[in-house]
Amino acid sequence: MLSYTFKRLAIAVPTLLILIVVSFVLMHAAPGGPFTSERELPPEVLANLNAKYGLDQPLWRQIFTYIWGIVTEFDFGPSFIYKDRTVNEIIAQGFPVTLTYGILSFIVAVVVGVTLGVVAAIRQNSVLDYFAVGVSIGAQVLPNFVMAPILVLTFTLWLGWLPGGGWQGGQWEYLVMPVIALSTSFMASIARITRSSMLETLNMNHIRTARAKGLPERRVILRHALKPAMLPVISYLGPAFVGMITGSVVVDVYFSTGGIGKAFVDSALNRDYAVMMGVTILMGTLTILFNLVVDILYGWIDPKIRY
Amino acid sequence: MLKHSLAASAVALLAASPALADNPVPEGVELAEEQSYTFWLLDAIKSMDPQINTDVEGSDILRNLFEGLYNEDAQGALVPGVATDHTVSDDQKTYTFTLREDAQWSNGDPVTAGDFVYAWQRLADPATASEYAWYMELMQIENAAEIIAGDVEPSELGVRAVDDHTLEVTITTPLPYFPQMVVHASTFPVHQATIEEHGDNWTRPENMVGNGAYVLDEHILGERVEMSKSGTYWDAENVVMENLTALTINDVNQALTRYLAGELDRVDIPAGQFPRLKEEYPDQATSTPYSCSYIYMMNVGDKGPEALNDVNVRKALAYAIDRDIIVDRILQGGQEPSYNWTHWATAGFERPDLDWADWSQEERLEKAKELMAEAGYSPDDPLELSLQYNTSEDHKKIAIAASQMLKAIGVNITLSNYEWKVHTDRMQSQDFDLARYAWCGDYNEASTYLDLFTSYSGHNNGEFFNDEYDAVMAESKTAEDPLPMYQEAERILAAEMPIIPIYHYANVDMLSPEIGGIPTENVMQTWYGKDLYRMAE
C-alpha cells in the first residue's frame, strides 16, 4: 500500500508538468491578451506592460521561468489584472472561502444523499421510496443558477431571514444559501447512486446469508450491506469533493462570496494568465490527490482489491 | 500671463456652486442617526492604485480615497480640490495651479506640489507600466510620449513643483479643456514614502496613505470595500457621510433583489425593467444621461468588405436601423436614439442639424432602399455582411433586431457572438465587417468622442481616414470656441457614415430615497461620498 502511494505520487509530478505546459500553451493560443481592452493601448505602453510581466519573452522561457518560480519559491507570480495582488494572495483569500462552503456542502450532500438513497432502497416501491426518488430527481433537474436566485428571493426578499449575499468571515447566516445551492445536485446524484447500488447489494448472497442467520435487519443493512454499497458512491465522491471545494461560479456570482470559482472563470475571460495557471494547478493537484484517496479507500472497503 | 481663476474659466463656474464649500445638507433636512451609504460594484476592484486603475468602478472608489487638483460638482462643473485656482500663460501652454495649504495626507503629512509631480511622473514611467500612461499623452504634457517610449527620463515630464503649493504644468499644444482633465483618477497624487516603503502592497488598508475624504478600512477582493471618514481631510467638518461600503455583486438582477431587500442604497436597473420599476417605485427609479455612445463600427479599411467602401451602402445601413424600436422596446431605460457620435448631453456640445436625424423612419427606409439599389444590391441579390458583438444579452437582442431591420433593405447579416477579449482582438486587427462598439467619455467635452475618428487615433478600428476630418479636429484644438468645428466633424461623419450610431447611454438606477446629494445632472456620473448624506426616514 505504501509503495503504491509513493508510486502514485511520483506519477503525479509529470502529470502536473504536462497539465502546466498544455494549459500554458492553450492559454496563450486564445486570441487577445491580459492587456487587450476597448481602448487599444499605444504600442509603447503595451511594450512596457509586456516587459514588466515577461510576456515579451519566448513562450518556452515564460513556461520555464514560471515553473522555476513555483519550484524554488512557491511563487505563482503577480496577477496581470488585479495588479496590487499576487496569485498566492488571491488564492489565499478565495480558497478558504470556497473550502468552507465546499466542505459543508459535501457533508450535507453525503449525509442527506446517502440517507435518502438507503431509505429508498430498503423501502423499495413504497411511498418513502417515491418521495426520496422524487426529491432527488427534482434536485437534479433544478440547476443551481435557477435555484440561487429563487433562494435569495425567498429567504432574503420575502421572508427577510437571511442576508442576500456576502461572506463576512463565514458567519452561519451567510453560509446557508450557498451550501443549499451547491449541495443539492450532488446530493441528488449521491442519493440515486446509493439507491441503485444498495438495491443491488441487498440481492447479494452474503446478505441472504446474513438474513438466514437471523440477524436483525438493522444490522444486516448497516454492517453488511452499507459498506459494499458505498463503493460506486465513493468513486463518485472523489471528483465531486474536488468539484465542491474548488468552488462554483454560480455560488460565487449569486452570493458574492468572493470565492475561487468566480476568480477562475474571470481569469480565463480576462486572460489573467497567472491566476488562471495558479488555480489550474491547485485544482489539478487536488484532483490527483483525491483520486488517490479514493483508490486507497477502495482498497480498505473492498477486500477484493489489493495494491 | 493671463489670469484664470476657476470662476472666470469658460468651462467651470465656481460661482455657480457656492454651496459646495459648505455643508452639503440643505436646510430643513433631518439627518439619519447612522450616516452610511452602501453602493454596488459589478466586479472586483482591480487596483486601488490611482496610476494603475483603469476602471470606472475603481475610479468611484479612488475619488473617495484620494483627491486631485479639481473635483466636479453636481452639474459636472469644476470646483476646487487640492488646487484652489490656476493661471494660464499667454500661449496657453503653461498652467500654474495654486494648491491649498491645509491639504493633508491621512498620516498627517502635508499634500504638496511634489506629490503631484511624483504621481504624474509615475504614471508616465515605463517602469510603472500603467495601462493609463497614455492619459499623460492625451493631456499633451511635455515629453509624455517620449517618456512612455523610454527615450527620455521620467523626471523630464513637463510638470514641476515651483514650491510646495505651486504646481506648474507645461503642455505641447493648447487644450481649452485641460483643467477638466485633472479630475481624472489617474492624475490623483500619491504618497511617495508609502509607495517606496511598501511597493505593490501599498494599497492594502493597513498601508495605504491617501488624501481623500475617506480612508480605506477593508478591501476583500470580489466581496466588499469599506471606507470611513478621514479626520485629516481639509474639509472634514463638512463631510456628513461617515461610512461608505461597496459590495461586489456580479449579477445585476441579484443586485436589484438585494437592493429591494434593503441591503444596498443604489444599484443599476437591468435592461427592460425600468418601466415596471418606475411604476412601482416612482421615487427610486431614475434615468439620467450618461456619457457613453453605442454604435456599430464599419470596417472601411483595406481589410474590410468592398461593399463598405461605398458611402451609399454605409448610409443605407445607418438609415435602415430603427433606433426608436431599440430604445423603446429593448432597452426601455430612457436612453436616447442617436444619429450622431458625441453624447448629446456632453458639456458645451450641441448636436448639429443633420438631415437624416429629422426624417421619419419611413423616409429613412425609403432612402436606404434607393441607395442600396444605386449600389447594385436588391433583396434578390443581397449584400452579405457579418455583425459581431461581445457576449451580452442586450447586445444580442439589439443585434438580432438590427439584422432584421437590415434584411428589409436587402442586407443579409450573419451574427457572430464573441467573448469580450476575442471581440476586441478581432476589432483591433481589423478582422470584422460591422462590430458593436461603445465609447465612454474620459472627460466632459466633445473631443473625447471626436478625437477617436482622426486618422492618428489609436482607437479608429474601422480605419476611417479623412483629411478634412483631421483638419477640423486639429483646428478645434486652438479655437476659442471649438463648437463649430465639432459640429463640422459630426457633419463629416454623417456625410461619410463610417459608423452606425445606435443610442446614447443613460444611467438607469434604483436610488434609495433616504440618500441625498447624489448628482443627477452630471453626464459623467461622477460622485463623491463627501457630498452625500442620509436623511431620516
3D structure, described in words:
The complex is a heterodimer of chains A (307) and B (537). Chain A has 12 helices and no strands. Chain A has 307 residues and is mainly α. Chain A has a domain at 94-259: MetI-like fold (Orthogonal Bundle), CATH 1.10.3720.10. In chain A, helix 4 (87-122) crosses helix 7 (172-202) and helix 8 runs antiparallel to helix 9. In chain B, the strands form 5 sheets. In chain B, strands 11, 12, 13, 14, 15, 16 and 17 form a 7-stranded mixed beta sheet that branches. In chain B, strands 1-10-9-8 form a 4-stranded mixed beta sheet, with helices on one face. Chain B has a 4-stranded antiparallel beta sheet with strand order 4-5-7-6, covered by helices on one side. Chain B has 2 domains: 3-247 and 512-534, Dipeptide-binding Protein, domain 1 (Alpha-Beta Complex), CATH 3.90.76; 290-506, Dipeptide-binding Protein, domain 3, CATH 3.10.105.10. The model of chain B is unreliable at 1-20 (pLDDT under 50). Chain B is α+β, with helices and mostly antiparallel strands and 537 residues long. Chain B is globular. Chain B has helices at 56-65, 113-124, 134-138, 144-148, 178-181, 192-198, 252-260, 274-280, 311-320, 323-331, 355-358, 361-374, 393-407, 420-428, 447-450, 467-478, 483-496; strands at residues 36-41, 70-72, 78-80, 83-88, 94-99, 159-163, 166-170, 214-220, 224-229, 243-248, 266-268, 285-298, 336-337, 383-390, 411-418, 434-440, 499-511, 515-516, 533-534. Chain B: One of its GO terms (molecular function) is peptide transmembrane transporter activity. Chain B: It is found in: Periplasm. Chain B: This is Oligopeptide transport system substrate-binding protein. Chain B: Belongs to the bacterial solute-binding protein 5 family.
